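Standup notes
- DV: blocked on the single-chain target, sequence here:
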Amino acid sequence: MAASHPTILIVDDTPENLSVLGELLQRNYRVRAANSGRRAIQIAQGQPTPDLVLLDVMMPEMDGFTVLAHLRENPATRDIPVIFVTAMDGTEDEQHGLDCGAVDYITKPIRPAIVLARIRTQLELKRARDILHDHNHYLETEVARRMAENQLIQQVSIHALARLAETRDPETGNHLHRTQEYVRTLAQALRQHPRFAAYLDDRRIDALAKSAPLHDIGKVGIPDHILLKPGALTPEEWTIMKTHAELGSRAIAQAEADAEQKVDFLDIAKEIARHHHEKWDGSGYPDGLSGEAIPISARLMALADVFDALICKRVYKDAFPVETARQIIVDGSGKHFDPDVVTAFVEQFGTFVRIAGTYAD
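- DV (later): unblocked, structure below
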């Protein structure tokens, strides 16, 4: 028998019935036989998996209803179509069999033409279901692949834009990676906090992490003699330097306006770019926001950005030891930073240090 032929499992405790069905089916199908419910379950779980089961109802030890229940409980056999073949011809019996999950009900004595027609119908239905299942699986796999590809393109594009700003300030090195992980760490630490739980779900945390590298994109608009100045800035130069927050926000807002639909991470990136230099006490820039008026995304970014600036060498300063940087952050609680964000930072300080080491310049 060709391997491509459908496999039919016939189950009956009477050898004569197995013989009759076997002779009828073997010309067109690969036939397996079982003379008990337990043996039927064993065969159904083996290879090749039957394409259809012809199952007697009245059998000793384990009747057909029980066998069907076992087949439906097992993920490997739950989708095999089962036709009951039985001497029971009452309407209630037939209804009970169909309610249990049988696809059809044939009464004995069997009529060969009817049996072959019913089997052919159920195998065609199974073939159609298998094709549909394979097609759906392919579509799901393809959608997942394209989503992953789009996310990769999105991530690469974000970093390309962020690197554009970084090329103006080459000493920042792995600043983008570090601040991204600092923000992620703070967000995960605060996700159960009563003040932050409604905002920090999985999707928002992912968007925050994606957005973080764009926080200084506005620096592309700052002249080199200011951006790279090794000493202190004059008041006039400082005024120009501070415009990078608004420049970055405006550029992202334009990109957002060009999008055909809302893009969550761009909305957050715009907040971060504009407000990551705001301070809890209202003394920051560009809008002088204070307290809860500062977006949560910007509050997390503010701490991440300052910590990284403290522990890294810049053209205008040497690097501070991590413990000194920690104390400066703690001293800024309630002034520069949201106190609860500082608490999360202190709790996760070891993680911050590990991130700094992993992405060291």
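- Follow-up: Strands lie at 7-11, 30-34, 52-56, 82-86, 104-107.
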